[in-house]
Every structure is written in C-alpha cells, then in structure tokens.
Amino acid sequence: MNHRILNATREQLIQQLVFFDEQYSLFFDHYVRDYGKEKQIVDALVRRYRETLEEILAKDDGALSESLENVTLLGSSVKVRFEEDGYEELFTVVFPTDIDPDHNRISFLSPIGRQLLLTAPHETLVLESPVGRQPVQIGEVRFAYRGEVFPVNKEDL
C-alpha cells in the first residue's frame, strides 16, 4: 500500500481515538437517549473499539494494512451474506453524522451498526434488525477511507 495513503489512514484512526477521548461525553449526550442499559451497551462497545484501535495503531505498517481487512472499524465497508437466501449486502459503518441510507452508510450506534462494528471476515452471527433475526456471515471487510478521498494537504490535490 502507498506509504502516503497508509500514513493518512493511520492519522484518521488516531483522530478517531482523540475524538473518543475528548468528545465522547458530548457525543454520547447528543446521540444516546437512554442512560440505563443503553449507556452500558454503548460504553462497552466504545471501550472495546478504542482498545482495538490502540492495538492496531501499535503495529508496523504492514500489520496495520492487514488489520484494516481483518476487523470492521468506523469507516469500514463490510459485505454481509444472509444465510437464508444467500443475498449479499454491503454496509459501511460510520459515525452518526455520516449516515447515508441510500448508500448503506449506517451509524455504528444503529442496531445493525453495533452488531457489525468489530466483526471479522468469515464470522457468523445472528443479526437482529427491525425485521427480525437473521443468520449472516461476514464477508470481505475493507477500510473505506485510506486517504484517497480527503487529501492530507493541498499539494496532494
């Protein structure tokens, strides 16, 4: 992978960590309505996510690049195969501010987003959604943002 793109990706993951360190309380108050069980679920998910990011960021460039295809992160596209009918759908797990239902960009706080965040290829799970419970298998995972879309500086345009 291009070194410049990998550096931009690393920087984006670091920015996610900084966000959760510095803005999590405000973020949580704005997006999560229930302070009981809901708070516990979201807190546990964000804690696991931060730990995963720290582990990934501690790796060298080669291992970092490989990790981007081995776990669903914020900014990852993940192919989901519904076992009942073999139908496949691609979701991108994003922050709530970046959702776009027309392009299957789902919030990591949504019921489906919560279940997909931190999943790995070939993992199977029972996906719970508003339409019911469906067994699925996680297919390909790709970190969608690798620096191509948002250049690091103006010289890269």
Automatic annotation (TrEMBL):
Signal peptide: none annotated. GO terms for molecular function: translation elongation factor activity. InterPro entries: GreA/GreB_C_sf (IPR036953), Tscrpt_elong_fac_GreA/B_C (IPR001437). Residues 74-142 form the Transcription elongation factor GreA/GreB C-terminal domain. Coiled coil: none annotated. Keywords: Elongation factor, Protein biosynthesis. It comes from the Bacteria. This is Transcription elongation factor. It comes from Brevibacillus choshinensis.
